[in-house]
Amino acid sequence: MLMPNWQESLIFSVTQSITGDTFLDIPKFEDVKNPDYKAIYTTGVFGGLSPDDARIVFFIDRIQAETINEPPERVGEQRVSKITREALIEVHMAPTQFKRIALWMQKNIQTYEEVFGAIPLEPKKSTINLEPKKDV
User: Fold this and answer.
1) What is the pLDDT of residues 97-130, one digit of tens each?
2) What is the CA radius of gyration of the chain?
3) Would residue 53 be called left, alpha or beta, if left means φ above 0 and alpha means ψ between -120 and 50 degrees?
4) How many Cα atoms within 13 Å fall on the side-chain side of residue 89?
5) What does the alpha-carbon distance between residue 116 and residue 96 come to, in Å, rounded to a whole number?
6) From edge to edge, which strands make up the β-sheet containing 78-93?
7) For 77, which of 15, 23, 86, 128 is 20 to 30 Å away at the CA?
8) What single DSSP character describes residue 109?
9) Are 59 and 88 in contact (CB under 8 A)?
10) pLDDT 10s digits, 35-44
11) pTM for the whole thing?
12) What is the rounded CA–CA span in Å between residue 105 and residue 2?
């Protein structure tokens, strides 16, 4: 779990008994899900940092297709008529937490790539010819 330093200092406290023994008090954690919790799939993100705030907006691009009705040789084919970028959630945090999340993500990427190989930043180029067939 990623926590700011002030939370770490609040969670772990040292207690000294009457006899002089020192104990580390570590509270029990309980994992619960907020009633509004939801899992989302995202196709992109944008956001940024200011001195007092960091924000990330997750979005999904939704493709709207339409069926072609003419010319006759293309009737029934589909094409993309519109792409709608739908903002799903905006997350605000302290810049320090923003950086901790970035470091956590980088560590997970490194572990993944050690096992499965490099993750390409660009999708593989399609070898499918998307041009309409022409009669010869």
Assistant:
1) 999 999 999 999 999 999 999 999 887 776 666 6
2) 26
3) beta
4) 9
5) 30
6) 44-49, 54-67, 78-93
7) 86
8) H
9) yes
10) 999 999 999 9
11) 0.63
12) 11
Give the tokens for residue 17.
């008994």
Whats the size of the chain, residue-wise?
136
Distances (CA, A) of 15 to 19, 23, 27: 11, 5, 13
Q: Cβ-count burial of 91 within 10 angstroms (0-12 exposed, 13-18 middle, 19+ buried)? A: middle
Q: How far apart are CA 36 and CA 19, in angstroms?
A: 48
Give the position of tokens 């000294």.
16
Q: In Å, how far from its chain's centre is CA 71?
A: 42
Question: With DSSP H G I counted as helix, E B as strand and the rest as coil, what are the percentages for the chain, rounded to 5?
Answer: 25, 30, 45
Q: Which residues face 44 on adjacent strands? A: 59
What does DSSP assign to residue 42? -
Find the angle CA(56)-CA(60)-CA(63) to the nearest 5 degrees. 155
Residue with tokens 């009737």: 75
Cα-based distances in Å from 72 to 69, 96, 129: 7, 59, 20
Whether the Cβ atoms of residue 105 and residue 111 lie closer than 8 Å to each other: no
